[in-house]
Amino acid sequence: MVYNKSRIGRQMNAPRILAAVFILLTPPAVFAQSERARDLGIVIGRFSPGPLDAVTDVKGVKVGHVTLVSGEGRLAPGKGPVRTGVTVILPAEGDLWESKVFAGSFVLNGNGEATGLMWLQESGILETPIALTNTLSVGAAQQGLVEWMLKSHPGVGVSDDTLTPVALECDDGALNDIRGRHVKPEHVLQAIDGAAAGPVAEGGVGAGTGMISYEFKGGIGTASRALPKDSGGYTLGVLVNANHGSRATLRIKGAPVGEEIQDLLPESHHDGSIVVIVATDAPLDARQLSRLSKRAMLGLARTGAVAYHGSGDVAIAFSTANRIPHYPKERTLRLEVLSDFHMDDLFEAAAEATEEAVVNALLAAKTTVGRDGNTAYALPHDRLKQLLRKYRVVAQ
To answer: Taking the model in full, what pTM does it have?
Structure first.
């Protein structure tokens, strides 16, 4: 694999397109030094984060990215410039097909595509990794998941059931040659093979490479919460692919950042979408996980999200606490399930972690020049710090 050293930002009017697509398999440690919300004194909510402040604080969860970048200048549909990728989330340790996890979902606004969501909603289980990519590459992401599962389970479709892999999307067409469908099934396989626990690369990586959020550069963000012992001691983590929002509505810890920073706007952006993945080790069933998914959207709203007509706003939540056998021998299953009357702190944690994950995505993202010279500018950290002090949301 070749580390991405493409000449983004130079010779933007040049008509040529680079022939090669540079592929970056993103080691987690490479991006560990980026400024994040808490580095700037932005403390969201009352619960503490886990050790990594990432979705991978939930034991067994792994994340992998493949980033595709090439070309510059004018759009040549089908050829480039390319600013896209794929991100995968492996929900739990062990064989997910033979030993599934409970899952739930919530769709705030449905202008988007999510394969496998119908079966997830019906069955309340998750039995494949989750793939995130761009809108027109959902089919390739789904195919990659199928190929990985078929390789792992030769009986699927022969002596075993078929499967419904989960792949979700956001539209990166403002920066990327989305018609080119440059994400291929093999990129999903590479992302799965490279998936790891530990720090998670954020910003314009993987599925977040071409994303724009609040008219700044957006992309992947993550955060977590570790509940105290008297709340169960559970861990909850969130990963987002942020490609949503209007500049005027952006708020960070209540400060009207978007109203204050009215320059640095891209020439073009789409209504956009956001995918929110919530993981927890709390023993929740499918119904409770769907309820948890809804609370993630409250955290999204705190950053200024409106769920516009053209936006796809989807949350999926899963729990690693119970494992459901594919072909149970016993007629009944013995499961541990948290009482609904003790879920409030988890609801609060989901909102907090989602809000912080969006902020982390904006802070990690770097200025990116895409098709036709369209530039998605990074949220300027220096100006943000001044605004946070002005509105007294961080220590003076």
So the answer is: 0.93
Known active-site residue 313: yes
> Tens of pLDDT along 142-176?
999 999 999 999 999 999 999 999 999 999 999 99
Strand 130-134 and strand 166-170: the pairing is: parallel
Query: Which listed residue (70, 137, 224, 273) is catalytic?
Result: 273
**Tokens 């119908």 — which residue?**
118
Beta-bridge partners for 224 = 237
Phi then psi for residue 130, to 5 deg, are -105, 130
Residue 137 annotated to the active site = no
Distance CA(186)–CA(130), nearest Å, equals 15
Catalytic residue among 57, 177, 313, 345: 313
- Amino acid identity of residue 244, one-letter, is H
Cα 329–330–335 angle (5° rounding)? Answer: 120
State the catalytic residue, choosing from 137, 293, 311, 319.
311
| Domains along the chain with CATH numbers | 22-390 (3.60.70.12)
CB 254 within 8 A of CB 393: yes
Instruction: Point out the least confidently predicted range of 12-21, 85-94, 226-235, 318-327.
Output: 12-21
Q: For residue 18, how many C-alpha atoms fall within 13 Å in the half-sphere facing its CB?
A: 20
- Catalytic-residue membership of 281: no
Q: What is the pLDDT of residue 172?
A: 97
pLDDT at 5: 30
